[in-house]
Specification:
Length: about 55
């Protein structure tokens, strides 16, 4: 299957749910996206220079 990009909103939601204590499997089910996709964005750096801000 072809790789699909996910929206920035979904990327931020992965990190938000992670911060709330959800597991990768729970996040995958909640957002209805593949566990591999969740894993890809799970350890994203949210530092000042990353361009991702969780407001």
């Amino acid at each position: 299957m072809a790789r699909m990009k996910i929206h920035m909103v979904d990327q931020k939601e992965i990190l938000r749910l992670k911060g709330l204590g959800h597991s990768r499997a729970e996040v995958s089910k909640l957002l209805k996206i593949d566990r591999g996709t969740v894993r890809k964005y799970w350890d994203v750096d949210c530092g000042e220079n990353s361009g991702i801000f969780l407001a």
